[in-house]
Amino acid sequence: MNSSTKATAACALMILLSIGVLSFRNTLREEQDRDWVTHTRIVIEKLQAVLVDVTQAENSQRGYMLTGEDQYLEPYRAGIDQAHRDMEEVRKLTLDNPGQQGAINGLKPAVDAKLALLAAGLEIRRTTGLMAGAEGVAGAGSQELMNQVQDRIGEMRSTEERLLSIRLERAAVSARRMEAIIVFGNSLAVLILLGAGFVIHREACKRNLAEQDLKQVNEHLEERTAELSDTNSELESFSYSVAHDLRAPLRQIAGYSNVLLQDHGPRLDAEARRYLEKVEEGARKMGQLVDDLLSLSKVGRQELSLQDTPLDLLLRQVVEDLAPECSGREVDWQIGSLFSAECDPGLMKQVFVNLLSNAVKYTGKRERAVIQVGQMMRNDLRTIFVRDNGVGFEMQYVGKLFGVFQRLHKARDFEGTGVGLAIVQRIIRKHGGRIWAEAELGHGATFFFTLGSPGNNTITKPELSIRNEEIHVAGS
Amino acid sequence: MSQEVEILLVDDSPEDVELTVLALRRNKLSNDIHIAEDGAEALDFLFCRGPYKDRSFSHPPKLVLLDLKLPKVDGLEVLKAVRSDERTKAIPIVILTSSKEQRDLIDGYNLGVSAYIQKPVDFDQFAETIKQVGMLWLLINQPPPPGAFVASKARGA
Asked: What ipTM was reported for this prediction?
């Protein structure tokens, strides 16, 4: 989701929230308005009830006056009580309205006076039995008081009715507003939902497309990987069988020239014998090349068989094995102590054999060869070095040093196939390590290598091609 | 046919055979060589059957030089047949081949080969190797007493 989509979503959320808050507040208000309407109606009802109560008291009093029967006393008293209660109620209900409070204070004496008059009439009738007299006393003032009560109640009622119409109007406005909010808010919500649906749909489409693309890329990659690994194993078996099948005719060339030279040599002239020697020598060199290629290919195919290996011991064996090559020469071996490493001992031995026999070979023209082997820390990594005081090489060619068939010296000066260092590099890389060299022409060479941790080894696939591969620049 | 064969050489390449014989001759070890050009012929010879039915199990060759890549029946099959028969299992068999493939080495030793030698390209080295093999198996090594394994019941072949 990008930032503009996020902003839009936040906006939509805000709008929906506002609509929610607005409708909630409006609902409260509408309820309040409706409560006020109900309240006003109750006030009006109660006012009416006061009148009814007083009238009931009056009618019952009159009944008693006429008949003297006690059955009228009950509704009479009930009317009085009820009138008081209803008036008290009206007073409480109109506490919010000072005008009405004033009016009720005016109403109460009128009602009390009216009721007192009724009570007086009743008392006379009860004690004297003189109906006419009592009626006379009560009649004239009674009607007047009743009119006063009616007027007061009428005034209060009309006040309340005015309030009622105002409040009804207000409630209606609230209801209409509510309606508007509901219609507007819901429409807006529907619109936002539609918009969100559209955006989600579009994003989903985009994602779908991207996923399809990714899937295609992945499939393509898998195919390529499979192709590469096929090619790799084809190349391996090709080079292995080439190396193998080349040996048979080579053996014949070397064998027959040797036999010819040995058994029929005396019958050949010197020139012919020299040619035959060259044939044999060529076959022998090619045999060496094939063997070297074979071991290079083997290193590529071979699984590492890792074990904790004391490199000291390995190194000592290699130096002993090199004794025949050093015979008749003064070679000063300066061997420091080496650490133990988790590595393939067979392959690691080959590393030392190749590096040390190189050192022996390239110091061949020194009166006294000095070959140092030891360990040091370089970039926090334990690094093994092999240093000699031999012919060295020019640093500008260091990139070619580890290439297959790459040689920095003429075959006439130093023999070799140019495969040894390629094998060394392949073994070191298989162990997750790195190899590089420093040298100066005429002043010896130093080879450095690290072993890394075989667990982090990423170069497990052999890189197999014959030429121009493994152009490795030292320090890169 | 002479019963006194000392070496059975099993190889399908006439040139390789010739060079091996020359190397043996150079070391004066080529008195009694029999050549088999494929694995089937080698088995007929060793099991005294077919063209070799007149041969006897009590006079096995003192040494078999066996190539691995052979027509019809390959070297490892020959080795397996010989080692799994009581009458022939004691015959010294040396694999002499171009291959130094790990698989071949392991299979060879699993089947009980006596020695495994890769032919060097250089003829002088090859002759030296052949000399040492011949010296060991024909002169230094003490073979089983004649007929010691003949009475045993045949299991295979």
From this structure: 0.81
The alpha carbon of residue A404 is apart from the nearest alpha carbon of chain B, in Å, by 22
Per-residue pLDDT of chain A (476 residues; tens, 9 = 90+): 567 778 877 888 888 888 888 888 888 888 888 888 898 899 899 889 988 998 888 888 888 888 888 888 888 888 889 988 988 888 888 888 888 888 888 888 888 888 888 888 888 887 877 665 555 555 667 788 888 888 888 888 898 889 889 888 988 888 888 888 888 888 888 888 898 888 889 989 999 999 999 999 999 999 999 998 888 878 777 776 776 677 888 889 999 999 998 889 889 999 998 999 999 888 888 888 888 877 887 787 778 888 888 888 889 999 998 888 888 888 888 988 888 888 888 889 999 999 999 899 888 888 888 999 999 888 888 899 999 998 888 888 888 888 877 777 777 777 777 888 889 999 998 888 899 999 888 888 999 999 876 444 333 333 333 333 333 333 33
User: From the CB of residue A169, how many other CB atoms can be counted at a distance below 10 Å?
Assistant: 12
Asked if residue B35 belongs to a domain, the reply is yes
The beta-carbon neighbor of B98 closest among A248, A258, A286 is A248
Q: Which of A255, A290, A294 sits opposite B19 (nearest CB)?
A: A255
Task: Identify whether the C-beta of residue B63 lies closer than 8 Å to the C-beta of residue B115.
Answer: no
- To the nearest whole Å, the CA of B109 is away from the closest chain A CA by 20
Question: What secondary structure letter does DSSP report for B118?
Answer: E
Pairing of strands A445-450, A381-388: antiparallel
Query: In this complex, which of A240, A262, A287 lies closest to B121 when CB atoms are compared?
Result: A287
Distance, C-alpha A20 to centroid of its chain: 32
Provide the whole-model pTM. Answer: 0.53
Q: Is the Cα dihedral B34, B37, B39, B44 positive or negative?
A: negative
Look up the domain containing A359 and give its range. 304-476
Q: Is residue B152 part of a domain?
A: no
Chain A residues touching B121 at Cβ < 8 A? 247, 250-251, 254, 283-284, 286-288, 290-291
End position of a domain, from candidates A166, A183, A202: A202
> What CATH number does the domain containing A192 carry?
1.20.120.30
B-contacting residues in A 233-252 (Cβ below 8 Å): 240, 244-245, 247-248, 250-252
Q: What is the CATH number of the domain that holds A337?
A: 3.30.565.10
Does A230 reside within a domain? Answer: no
Q: ∠A17-A23-A24 over CA atoms, to 5°?
A: 90
Q: For residue B41, what are the domain limits?
A: 7-134
What's the CA gap between A187 and A19, in Å, rounded? 11
Q: Residue A442 domain-assigned?
A: yes
Beta bridge partners of B66: B10, B95
- The residue whose two tokens read 């290598």 is A449
Are A423 and A370 contacting, i.e. CB atoms less than 8 angstroms apart?
Answer: no
Cβ distance of A251 and B121 shorter than 8 Å: yes
